[in-house]
Amino acid sequence: MSLQTLTRSQLALHNGQDKPTIYVAFQQRIYDVTNSRLWRDGKHYQHWAGQDLTAELSDAPHTEKVFERFEQIGTLV
After folding, report:
1. pLDDT confidence of 41, banded at 50, 70, 90?
2. Domain count, the chain
3. Radius of gyration (Cα) for the chain, nearest Å?
4. Which of 3, 16, 32, 49 is deepest in the core (most CB within 10 A)?
5. Which domain holds residue 25?
6. Dist CA 12 CA 41 (whole Å)
7. Main-chain phi, psi angles of 16, to 5 degrees
8. How far is CA 35 from the centre of its chain?
9. Of 56, 32, 35, which Cα lies nearest the Cα of 46?
10. In CATH, what number is assigned to the domain containing residue 33?
């Protein structure tokens, strides 16, 4: 599968509300978290889907290794 290239505006549509898919970005990589029970309705604690979460990771109780659980489906431009 080839990776999609999405802008921030396009990523924002995958927020669990506007489209059925739920995506988040971290370090320019976009991950599909649609099937994660922790991202139901596009929200995970105080974090919202459809956004770049790079700056927010420092507040999370986990490391960037958490993204290894999810498929990278694209890159953020």
Report:
1. confident
2. 1
3. 11
4. 49
5. 4-76
6. 14
7. 85, 0
8. 12
9. 56
10. 3.10.120.10
